[in-house]
Design a protein that fits this description.
By secondary structure, the protein is of the alpha/beta class. It contains 19 helices and 27 strands.
Length: 595
């Protein structure tokens, strides 16, 4: 590995110090004023060693949300992060804009066609169904669910995913009222921090797809096709940690299975109270859940493992994912507040509360970084796995995708009796991703033509009981890609068994759901799905800088390695997709000095 001295900027040395000074303002004292942004580069060059990259991914955080908050609260932690860093105002996440491909983009440098991961719940034409024992005669093709369904715990699914941590704060959750669960916040955090740092042990092998060649279960890290930032860091002797929402996020370990030394994954879709709520069905519960991961990160900043019990040193690459903004965008109401956005496109009351929460947690992290003397060696990257659509509630149309699929299967069966249903698997949030039991050109053409000629009933947000009051043409789609065209859309190799057979791009405002429990979704190709925040702040980067050039969240991965003086081209996806580091990352254009 070539090591070299790096030129950075004197101004960035005070970036996090300035942010800590701002935090002296109480969190609830957010004066409303317009942001004044200095986009000039007021700095002189000096050497500064970046030793820690802290990645914070906030599901649902649009660039417009960040801009709104910074303008409204210029003394906030988010505002000072932007002012003392480089703000990429035209950043896009990958398509599909789902959590798994979105997170992997940030930590591999590649999109779904390269990583082989298209959704957290997807389909593979080459693998065998979970539980298969006769691998010689079983027909390939199966759902691949990297969700709570893979946990050891079921009925109920538990926050510790089946580790069976002996604590009243955890064991009482299925019988608690909502109020009791929220009141037990500190005890809950203390208990769940005992969760294992190797969550692959929390996955049920019997719930995993089976490799026909070995007749063994396929773990998430064995499914991804390329290596991760964590693996590159570990190969260079650096420590790694991460916190996310399912044990199946052990996929971030990469093909080696050992990329993340300390992986903390409390199960978000677990029982939170006796009403059957999980941590996403109430925004106060989501905040409580996210706070457990914040506690883990604070311990890691202090140089401990996520539990706070073993001193291991502050990781070189670490961070977490927040869910609070996402549920505030999706829930119609929660905690007596309306979710989503106002008619003028600004965040509504629940979302404003969620953004305040994120700001407070970021402030706590920055304070801890400064307290521990890590300001001059830590870079913070803020972004999002995905956005959420639609922002304008008047455009929302809820469409029952199940009814569309049933009708299409029936139409196919009428022409082809005694065959399997045409749609083998589908995941439809605000787009359609399908795998067919018969992926021949004839079947693909049939499915495409059916969807584009089908008129589907839809209901408006003003229909509280979900009464269908209108219809959408072409099944709510604007375009349908099948076979080779679908592969080309993702940059996948032709015939890749990981890839879907059919992809539908939804009309703006269409959300596929049979109910009325959500007012927004992600996964699709709408601007609100893909236009996300991206800020790089702290050690090693220019401050007071705004970059409006179009960038991708895939560029985060090589940029992390560049900041740590590692080779971005050690990432396989970077080589495959020719992914550049972020432009103007350290005062220069997108010059990769490792080439």
């Amino acid at each position: 590995m070539l090591r070299r001295s790096r030129a950075f900027f004197a101004g960035v040395g005070i970036a996090l110090v300035a942010l800590v000074g701002a935090i002296a303002t109480p969190a609830n004292a957010r004066p409303e004023a317009s942001r004044t942004s200095d986009t000039s580069d007021k700095h002189v060059e000096h050497d500064q060693q970046v030793k820690h990259a802290l990645l914070i991914s906030v599901d649902g955080l649009h660039q417009s949300d960040l801009a709104y908050y910074v303008a409204k609260f210029p003394s906030s932690a988010l505002a000072h992060l932007v002012a003392n860093g480089t703000d990429y105002t035209n950043a896009k996440t990958t398509f599909p804009s789902d959590s798994f491909p979105g997170m992997l983009a940030q930590l591999t440098g590649g999109g779904a066609g390269t990583t082989g991961v298209y959704y957290d719940d997807t389909y593979n034409h080459a693998l065998l169904p979970a539980g298969t024992r006769d691998c010689s005669t079983t027909q390939p093709g199966t759902e691949v669910a990297w969700t709570e369904g893979a946990d050891r715990s079921q009925n109920p699914i538990t926050l510790d995913a089946g580790q069976q941590i002996n604590s009243p704060a955890l064991t009482h959750l299925p019988t608690n009222t909502l109020a009791q669960t929220l009141a037990e916040g500190p005890a809950l955090t203390a208990a769940i921090l005992k969760l294992t740092h190797t969550p692959q042990t929390l996955l049920d092998p019997g719930a995993l797809p089976v490799d026909p060649a070995t007749c063994l279960p396929v773990y998430p890290h064995q499914y991804i096709k390329v290596n991760t930032v964590f693996e590159v860091a570990r190969a260079n002797g650096l420590r790694t940690a991460w916190s996310d929402k399912h044990p199946a996020y052990e996929i971030l370990n990469g093909p080696s299975g050992t990329g993340v030394q300390d992986l903390f994954t409390p199960e978000i879709n677990s029982a939170a109270d006796n009403a059957g709520d999980d941590w996403t069905t109430n925004n106060a519960l989501t905040r409580e859940y996210d706070s457990t991961k914040v506690a883990a990160v604070l311990n890691e900043i202090d140089g401990f493992d996520h539990s706070g019990t073993q001193r291991v040193g502050t990781p070189a690459v670490f961070g977490m994912n927040f869910q609070t903004v996402s549920t505030a965008e999706k829930l119609p109401t929660s905690n007596g507040l309306a979710g989503g956005y106002m008619p003028d496109g600004t965040p509504g009351p629940l979302l404003r509360q969620a953004l305040n929460y994120i700001d407070d947690q970021l402030a706590a992290m920055v304070q801890r970084i400064a307290h521990d003397g890590l300001t001059d060696s830590t870079t913070i990257i803020l972004s999002a796995k995905h956005g959420q659509a639609p922002n304008d509630p008047s455009t929302l149309r809820r469409v029952d995708d199940g009814a569309i699929i049933d009708a299409m299967n029936a139409a196919w069966a009428a022409k082809h009796p005694n065959v399997a249903p045409l749609v083998a698997f589908a995941v439809d949030d605000d787009g359609m991703i399908m795998s067919l039991s018969d992926p021949t050109p004839t079947a693909l053409a049939f499915a495409k033509n059916y969807l584009l000629s089908h008129s589907a009933p839809a209901n408006r947000i003003t229909d509280p009981k979900g009464i269908f009051s209108t219809s959408v043409a072409a099944s709510g789609l604007t375009a349908v890609y099948t076979g080779p065209a679908a592969d080309a859309l993702f940059g996948a190799k032709a015939g890749d068994p990981h890839a879907p057979d059919l992809v539908g791009i939804a009309q703006h405002g269409v959300v596929y759901t049979g109910g009325v429990k959500k007012i927004a979704e992600h996964g699709g190709d709408a601007p609100e799905d893909r236009d996300v925040a991206l800020v790089v702040s702290g050690a090693g980067v220019a401050h007071h800088r705004t970059v409006d050039a179009r960038v991708q969240t895939t560029q985060i991965a090589p940029s992390i390695l560049e900041l740590l003086d590692l080779n971005p081209h050690d990432l396989q996806a970077v080589r495959i997709e020719h992914t550049e580091i972020l432009p103007s990352l350290s005062g220069t254009d997108s010059t990769d000095r490792h080439r």
